[in-house]
């Protein structure tokens, strides 16, 4: 589905891409909800909610410290690299919104990127709100480099918390001509609602996923397969159509 301009004045078309854990699966990073409902053998309520953190901060720190180590050992895959190529070569507006907390999109070379659920390689001070790039553990209670109070937590948006720059994301969705969802189950809101928002603005919608998702019926087209194969093929199609 090469993008066409639906909104008159702008040329070339504006694209918004939403990615989820499936885009990093072929880099060896587990997706969110396995069939047993657990994330890396943990209950989601225990490791991905503010209540879980209050109840057992040591467990939550151990969990994210381990994810931080794993992510730094992983490498971007063909899907990350293809999206970076699109970012470099697409002359129109483009915004890649990722739900992923890994840094594989940016290491693959993507620039027009937003992390709506935060980043593993970042620490947030619950006292002063500063965000700090963080590659080591947080479980040993390091003090915030800005305010010196030992209140650092993973800079990850947990269930019940507000994702990062929603205003900017909704603005892009309302202006886009094509919305593409890659490797996401469509189960986590507000991201799961983006396809409806884009449709309401007149955009065409494409889903690339391993299997049908909860939102598949909302897309104009769904292609099933591995992101490492589907995404490079789609990017080739889009850039080829632009040249032609
Ligand atoms: P999810 O686990 O709910 O869904 C992943 C989707 O990807 C599934 O529909 C699955 O069929 C599909 N998939 C699996 N392997 C694939 C492949 N090789 N190619 C294409 N698709 C594939 O993930 P989600 O929808 O992103 O849900 C979200 C939450 O999980 C987010 O909030 C995110 O912060 C968190 N999370 C992030 C990471 C990461 O940063 N890599 C990893 C796990 C969880």
Which hetero ligands occur in this complex? nicotinamide-adenine-dinucleotide
The percentage helix is 25-40%
Helix/strand-derived category reads alpha/beta
**Straight-line N-to-C gap:** 14 Å
Rounded mean pLDDT is 93
**Sheet with the most strands?**
6 strands, parallel
Give the count of helical stretches: 8
Across the major sheet, the strand order is 5-4-1-9-10-11
Counting DSSP E segments of at least 2 residues, the number of strands comes to 11
Rg computed from alpha carbons, rounded to a whole number of angstroms: 18 Å
The coarse silhouette is globular
Q: What oligomeric state is this? A: single chain
Give the low-confidence spans. Answer: none
SSE succession = EEEHHHHEHEEEEHEHEEH
List the helices and strands and how they pair.
Blueprint: E1 15-19, E2 38-39, E3 42-43, H1 44-47, H2 50-55, H3 57-73, H4 78-89, E4 94-98, H5 104-108, E5 113-115, E6 118-125, E7 131-133, E8 152-156, H6 166-175, E9 178-182, H7 194-200, E10 204-209, E11 221-224, H8 227-243
Parallel strand pairs: 1-4, 1-9, 4-5, 9-10, 10-11
Antiparallel strand pairs: 2-3, 6-7, 6-8
Helix pairs in contact: 4-8, 6-7
The structure holds nicotinamide-adenine-dinucleotide.
Nicotinamide-adenine-dinucleotide binds at residues 20-22, 24-26, 29, 31-33, 99-102, 117, 183-185, 187-188, 209-211, 213, 226-227.
């Amino acid at each position: 589905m090469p993008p066409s301009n639906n909104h008159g004045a702008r040329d070339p078309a504006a694209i918004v891409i939403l990615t989820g854990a499936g885009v990093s699966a072929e880099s060896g990073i587990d997706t969110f909800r396995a069939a047993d409902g657990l994330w890396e053998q943990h209950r989601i309520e225990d490791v991905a909610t503010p209540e879980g953190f209050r109840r057992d901060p040591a467990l939550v720190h151990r969990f994210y410290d381990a994810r931080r180590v794993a992510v730094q050992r992983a490498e971007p895959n063909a899907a990350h690299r293809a999206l970076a190529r699109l970012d470099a070569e697409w002359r129109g507006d483009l915004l890649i919104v990722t739900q992923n907390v890994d840094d594989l999109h940016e290491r693959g070379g993507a620039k027009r990127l937003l992390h709506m659920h935060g980043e593993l390689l970042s620490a947030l001070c619950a006292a002063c709100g500063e965000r700090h790039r963080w590659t080591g553990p947080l479980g040993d209670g390091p003090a915030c480099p800005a305010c010196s109070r030992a209140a650092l937590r993973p800079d990850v948006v947990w269930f019940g918390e507000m994702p990062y720059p929603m205003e900017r994301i909704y603005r892009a969705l309302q202006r886009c001509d094509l919305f593409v969802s890659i490797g996401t189950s469509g189960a986590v809101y507000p991201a799961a609602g983006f396809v409806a928002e884009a449709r309401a603005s007149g955009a065409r919608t494409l889903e690339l996923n391993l299997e049908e998702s909860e939102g598949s019926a909302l897309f104009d087209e769904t292609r099933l397969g591995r992101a490492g194969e589907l995404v490079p093929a789609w990017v080739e199609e889009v850039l080829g159509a632009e040249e032609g």
